[in-house]
Amino acid sequence: MDLCHVPASREKGWYLALMAPNVKGPNYAWLDPSRLYCHPQGLQECVADLLQPFQGDAIDMVAGIDAMGFILGAAAAATLRKGFLAIRKAGHLCVQTVAQPYTDYSGREKLMEVRTDAIAPGLRILLVDQWVETGGTMRAAIELVERLGGVVAGVAAICIENSEGGKWIQERYKCSHCVPPRLQPRFDQHQ
Fold this sequence. Notes:
There is one protein chain. The protein is built from six helices and nine strands. By secondary structure, it is an alpha/beta fold. It has a domain at about 60-190: Rossmann fold (3-Layer(aba) Sandwich), CATH 3.40.50. Helix 2 crosses helix 3. The radius of gyration is 16 Å and the shape is globular. The protein starts with 19 loop residues before the first strand and ends with a helix.
């Protein structure tokens, strides 16, 4: 893996080619972005592309979704000079929380939680995750933020698939992702 090579000519999303395909079978996501996160220029441009649509928007805090959303969310928060809130899978927080059930991309029933003292009414939060496949995880995060009185300022992910859940989110919230329109069908079909 060459962590220094940057293509001389590059378009938005060039760094998507750094992601590695699944070689372990159906219990895993179809792509692994961790190599993209290891590439300094790729990570910087990915975060810049995710934040570009929100330039000038009022954002008070960035929230990342457990676990891979922590990477992009923390990078986005640092870039925006905002605080970062971790939205966790249940059972990891030792403080007062509110929980939300959801079904993840693999069809498993899970529970997500967030600390109750981090979101004040009216706080504008940018939600960040690595991927929005079926939309269940992101929708649970949206429910948690809104139940505590926060406002979803936007949703950002490397890819927001055109699934029923992905479309539901894109119809209701300002969204940003890194997949160029010409490649979106390939990502939706996991090719």
